[in-house]
Amino acid sequence: MVHPSPEVLDTKEIDIRSMSSSHRHSDQAPYMHKVGMPSKQNLLKEIKSTVKETFFSDEPLRPFKDQPRSRKLVLGIQAIFPILEWGRDYNFTKFKGDLIAGLTIASLCIPQDIGYAKLANLPPQYGLYSSFVPPLVYAFMGSSRDIAIGPVAVVSLLLGTLLQDEIDYETHPKEYLRLAFTATFFAGITQASLGLLRLGFLIDFLSHAAVVGFMGGAAVTIALQQLKGFLGIKKFTKHSDIVSVMRSVLTSAHHGWNWQTILIAASFLSFLLFAKLIGKRNKKLFWVPAIAPLISVILSTFFVYITRADKDGVAIVRKIEKGINPSSVNQIYFTGDYLMKGFKIGVVAGMVALTEAVAIGRTFAAKKDYQLDGNKEMVALGTMNVIGSMTSCYVATGSFSRSAVNYMAGCNTAVSNIVMSGVVLLTLELITPLFKYTPNAILASIIITAVIGLIDFDAVILIWKIDKFDFVACMGAFFGVIFISVEIGLLVAVSISFAKILLQVTRPRTALLGKLPLTTVYRNVEQYPDAAKVPGLLIVRVDSAIYFSNSNYIKERILRWLADEEEQLKAKDLQRVDFLIVEMSPVTDIDTSGIHALEELYRSLKKRDIELLLANPGQAVIDKLYASKFTDLIGNDKIFLTVADAVLTCKPKTAVEDV
Amino acid sequence: MVHPSPEVLDTKEIDIRSMSSSHRHSDQAPYMHKVGMPSKQNLLKEIKSTVKETFFSDEPLRPFKDQPRSRKLVLGIQAIFPILEWGRDYNFTKFKGDLIAGLTIASLCIPQDIGYAKLANLPPQYGLYSSFVPPLVYAFMGSSRDIAIGPVAVVSLLLGTLLQDEIDYETHPKEYLRLAFTATFFAGITQASLGLLRLGFLIDFLSHAAVVGFMGGAAVTIALQQLKGFLGIKKFTKHSDIVSVMRSVLTSAHHGWNWQTILIAASFLSFLLFAKLIGKRNKKLFWVPAIAPLISVILSTFFVYITRADKDGVAIVRKIEKGINPSSVNQIYFTGDYLMKGFKIGVVAGMVALTEAVAIGRTFAAKKDYQLDGNKEMVALGTMNVIGSMTSCYVATGSFSRSAVNYMAGCNTAVSNIVMSGVVLLTLELITPLFKYTPNAILASIIITAVIGLIDFDAVILIWKIDKFDFVACMGAFFGVIFISVEIGLLVAVSISFAKILLQVTRPRTALLGKLPLTTVYRNVEQYPDAAKVPGLLIVRVDSAIYFSNSNYIKERILRWLADEEEQLKAKDLQRVDFLIVEMSPVTDIDTSGIHALEELYRSLKKRDIELLLANPGQAVIDKLYASKFTDLIGNDKIFLTVADAVLTCKPKTAVEDV
What we know:
The structure is a homodimer of 659-residue chains.
Chain A: H1 6-27, H2 29-36, H3 43-55, H4 69-80, H5 83-88, H6 92-119, H7 125-129, H8 133-141, E1 149-150, H9 153-166, H10 173-196, H11 208-225, H12 227-231, H13 242-251, H14 253-256, H15 259-281, H16 287-307, H17 337-368, H18 374-390, E2 397-398, H19 400-408, H20 415-431, H21 440-452, H22 457-466, H23 468-484, H24 486-506, E3 510-515, E4 522-524, E5 537-542, H25 551-571, E6 579-583, H26 592-607, E7 611-615, H27 619-627, H28 630-634, E8 639-640, H29 643-650
Parallel strand pairs in A: 5-6, 6-7, 7-8
Antiparallel strand pairs in A: 1-2, 3-4, 3-5
Helix pairs in contact in A: 1-2, 1-29, 6-9, 6-16, 6-19, 6-20, 6-21, 8-18, 8-20, 9-10, 9-17, 10-17, 10-18, 11-21, 11-23, 11-24, 15-16, 15-21, 17-18, 22-23, 23-24, 25-26
Membrane topology (chains A, B): Multi-pass membrane protein
Keywords (chains A, B): Membrane, Transmembrane, Transmembrane helix, Transport
Domain STAS (chains A, B): 527-650
């Protein structure tokens, strides 16, 4: 053996003692664990801590701890309106950044809004309305510094399809609009109450993979929807699935297409894509793709105006209401059966909008490394949509594309949102009439370029590499959206995500452990081929909390490990198994069914006259083992601090030839 | 330090090497783990193993392994009809046990059947029918040796309420009966298909606690239902909740009660309870409570016959069809909207019946230590009910009370069921007319004594002691059944069980680790107060797989541990934290969201210039860490075999004063 380095020597010192002591522990294992046990009668504390970790894991009241009342009040108000907090040390340099960012996203959002409104089957001005009020509200209440608020493609599409299922927007535009506001109202209520009830974690149940798939699918669907404007097709299907869209595209091929429209659309699309490319190549030129849409709107509008191409069947926006948001309080359905429908749609749309906003918020918060209070965010977004629903806005949330631009343009605070909504205000007051001649084709091209960004190939590839099950969820959501509908895709995504959780808790992993040569470390023999099983004993590790959902499986699996082992041993007629050591480090919790499973395991082992030893049960587990008197059943001296200790006591019976 | 014993010395030998080597490992951590990694391209294998563990965890084909074809065929047939297997070495001594057991449960089941049929709102003979055919079928196909098949209280009640919700049994007895057969048919189909599709594990989602609560609630409800017969009330509510039952009992108090009935019922009830007490006191006298019901039926019938008490308003059975089960194939609804209703009811009743049967089977299999193939059991029970539905039987399953008697009477095989059904056959053929004068009151008393056994106080107390959350589920089910209805109680039970699983995966435990004095073992500082934190580093253990449902929480929780720690250190102005070690032994799996969370954790640590080290990631985890290039991000040399190794490498920067 190599001459040990000083370091090794000093660890040697430690370790002689370590083993002796840990051996001493092993004799007094119950002592060790009694120490580990908290007092029995702490039910309230228990419940309290569970509730705390579940709902208040972020300790929202932390800053309020031991502060004078007056200060608490101030902090309270600041908690509701973060602007009061960061507003105080706001200065001109910060404003410069926000101004530029605000102007950039404004130029990007105006054409997008008009397009997205069409996705939701709403008149164009409602898109602009939704980019005026909500960003203002958010600026005061929101805590993300980089998110850009407004209508977004996916939510607009989702809302459009869900509403269309209830009311036809062509035959009953009024009711349709009213239902849209109702849905928006309840979307806001949903978001706010999720935040207030501290149920923010619920949106975590939509897995990253599912979101990627859903977004991708939605992007494709939206792009396909744009073929209407792009090809200038008059009568177009109201379904969003690829099959019926393609059918109505092809059927209208021989007469329905309009070459002038296609010409305009194609040329500007290539222009926009080229701008996007420039932006990708050189991050400094981020503003090129950002303002390209507005430029192409201006150019194309002017072009159509002078050529009067609209006479040749080039569809144009035709009319956008002038002036700012009218009130829509009295339009919301608070009675009748549309109330329920609006509520349902609102919940779904609200959740999706929330997922997108929170995802964005987290991404950029991580980039700039500031904490984002999920629940507070939800309250902000919710209030914003509730107020929005009363001022003729439909569901608004954080937009991926615009937030990215906002970030790259160097925004510092939510002031950029204020700037943007200022610009939108001016647009509404002054220049909406100028959009009269804007060809729909250009909006189609703009939306296509925008949504392309939602298809994240790299993420999909990574998901495939990392976790096949996630990949299934991702693809399920993707194809669900494309081939059936947005809501079905969403449903698929959620259910696959749940299926995964359930699978995890029903069929946990178990592993046979072996001794790593020249150490006292015991590891999975599959993972470490050089780990050697100790003759005469079987060491099994259970890799999950033992709950009713898996207790039977775990019991039977362990017995199967044993059966396999004994089979092999018989074959090679080696020493039989006398001890079964269950390594419980990963067993974080156990319930009554779990205890029963252990008892049954113990009994059937006893019949085979094999001793059951437990290694390193955690706090919650040892607690319950005592409460259920299981420790008395198997004997306190059968519970050890480490597998090594357990193995040591087995030695007397079975000679370990050291590997 | 004490003079080390020889044993300690030899472990010392081991341990010097251990540390040096494991330290050597730590330098070559990536090497270690590369060894641990299986080859990349094993997607198929991966999926195959998942499927295997999920659906074929019990290796049903194991005995077929490397056998000649002819043998395989025999084994196949034996697998379907276990009787062929145990039948071959069946002998007289075994038969004696089975005969006695069979007669005992027969005497118990006959009066119970008649009563249970009333619970299901069916004419009495259908109870007996269901104790004739199903046990026969089960005897050939079932693999439990102790279960006693027949109609049971809970399922009868459940079926009764569910059917009554669809059709009123008084106004439309024919349709009601037909729907009952339809439900039974689909109950069988459900059970069989669960078995064939290897979905047996689904019933594990009804937690033990929930079952205890549900059973208790059902028992109370059933007992309350018996007040009708017990007090001789004519018009009685059709609802099963305690409130409406009590109301109809009290409203009928001043005129509706019949004192003769009460007299008979009360006296025999006390007799039955006394018999039960004797059985409890002296296990040898198990037959006393077993035959007491039949005796009291005979006595009371005779008594009523001579006194003609029925003239004084003592309700009697009046009429039981003579003869064995008529066919009912043509009565099952295979069309119309009753098909769907029957299907729904069947699925629910089938699942509940299955849960009860499997629970019983497992209990006694554990007692006699023989394996029970859950999926095979389901196929047997399913077939039994399908055949039953075609021979005028309603849903039959394993009965708690009768199975216990069967076991205590010393049954050896399912032959006891054959004996029982033989006795039932004779009863149907010969003596049913004699039941004409049997007072309903006696049946009420018998059922009450029977269901009392379903209320398991000890279990409830144990549940309370062990797991508070289980207790909530238990009580939820209990009160759900009592105050609302059986199906609601069931729903509550299931949903609380699920809520628990979700909570588990959303808010996993995390723990700060400290070094146990004089060892290299690191444990939860809460559990082991003498475990000392290592200055300069923070060791956090994550106690769960890291999935989308908890990845964000885990990331934020770890950062919070860090924040708290740093706060304290500042307060005591101690050395700041330079290293964060994440002990990953319990982290059994990770998905894409989990990887992202780790990346974000790494980044925000880097900003605080704290190094991230990982200790002992499992196979699946290290696999994915590599696939996602996370290992390259933090550096391969930052992954260690044990926490001790990780701590060693931190030493150079931060001197550990040994505790």
